[in-house]
Amino acid sequence: MKKLTLLSVFLLVTGYASAQKYSSKTGKVTFEASVPLFDDIYAQDDNNLVILNADTGEMASVSAVKNFHFKTKLMEEHFNESYAESAKYPKATFKGKIVAFDKSKLTASPQKYTIQGTMNFHGVDKAVASAATISLKDGKVYLQGSFVVKPADYKVTIPKMVTKKIAENINVEYNYILIKS
Asked: Is the pTM of this model over 0.85?
């Protein structure tokens, strides 16, 4: 019985260790909430951490909310203090899966996929789906995509005096170059 248990644990650990994982610590995530005639509301995080299990298509990412940088410090300050409340909710995360993913079918030509999962922002979990393109070049996985979120879905309160200056639908884009880890 001990040998069977030991063998089972060994096979489980070996299977996990042999999974093809790709990752990046320098993923780029941007969001835009601009409306015509007002200041551009655009922020970027160049330190998004992402990991992809190429055997299963499962992926996860995390951003430190304070890593999103705006063109003006005042806008960044308002975002962190009033909207995202980054001291209380320091991370934005995504955990999901690439639908019908098969690493053996990746080529240098980008292919279209759908990524489904759960995004957590401002302490709220919400299902999201994203259109993405994925390719494999020089042993690196290139993954790009976008999706739309609404501040109200994440319980982000926009003061009435600025509601017309911030888009109701926020466009989120990501761009990753993942290396085998």
From this structure: no
Residue type, 4: L
Of all residues in the chain, what percent are helix, strand and coil, respectively (each to 5)?
25, 50, 30
- E-assigned strand segments in 34-169: 42-53, 58-64, 69-70, 91-98, 111-121, 124-137, 140-149
Kind of pairing between the strands at 58-64 and 69-70? unpaired
Distance in angstroms between the alpha carbons of the first and the last residue of the chain: 35
pLDDT digits 0-9 by tens, 53-82: 999 999 999 999 999 999 989 989 989 998
Q: What is the pLDDT of residues 126-179, one digit of tens each?
A: 999 999 999 999 999 999 999 999 999 999 988 787 777 888 899 999 999 999
CB neighbour list of residue 44: distance below 8 Å, 6 or more residues apart: 28, 29, 30, 68, 69
Q: Assess contact for 63 and 48: CB atoms under 8 A.
A: yes
Strand partners, 127: 118
31 vs 5: CA distance, rounded Å:
49
Measured distance CA(24)–CA(177) in Å, rounded: 7
Q: How confident is the model at residue 85 (pLDDT cuts 50, 70, 90)?
A: very high
Report yes or no: 176 and 16 within 8 Å, Cβ to Cβ: no
